[in-house]
Amino acid sequence: xxxxxINASKGDALVAAQAEKAESFWARFKGLLGRxxxxxxxxxxxxxxxxxHMFFMRFAIDVVFLDxxxxxxxxISGIKPWRATRAYTKATSVLExxxxxxxxxxxxxxxxxxxxxx
Length: 118
Prior knowledge:
118 residues; mainly beta; Jelly Rolls; seven-stranded mixed beta sheet; 38% strand
């Protein structure tokens, strides 16, 4: 199943048109590994999650850490392969997006995102 993500704090601006969810242990473990890119409009929501690593990745991504109410805890642009983030204790999930989406959509801490089945 695919999901649309919008930024309710920015007039329902579209963040991702076709994001996937990774909820099982194996889906979270694999994440985006093995892919050559993340298509425009795509994304991956990982829950539960409060930190990520980019080991063995082939491309950079933007990352949005969310609390249980889908409020943005931290938004990071352009995380490159072979990097890792710190753990954000208030985050319960993360939305991985194509590089540039955070800047294009103006996602900022405190914004509230919404997930809609598509």
